[in-house]
Model the fold of this input.
Amino acid sequence: MPTPVQAPRANAYIERWIGGCRRELLDRTLIVNARHLRHVLATYETHFNTHRPHRALSQAAPLRPLPDPVDLDDKVTRRDLLGGVIHEYTQVA
Done:
């Protein structure tokens, strides 16, 4: 679908998401079939919206409030997603 004349930046947001998805995930993963692709994209979408920090939101995720300040005494744990392609880090009190 062509970009409407009245909104030349209409595709900028989805192009940014697709570019990030390709660089962070699809360039590092061998997709076997359509079912595998749907699973990988659903996992990445969940990670993107609930865990991954965004600069425009002051390092908060879109579906999560801003995190509390970091205390250097807390332990950090790592959870691997999609066989280690994506890493999620959380603090443990």
Remarks:
- Residues 12-92 form one domain.
- The longest strand covers residues 75-81.
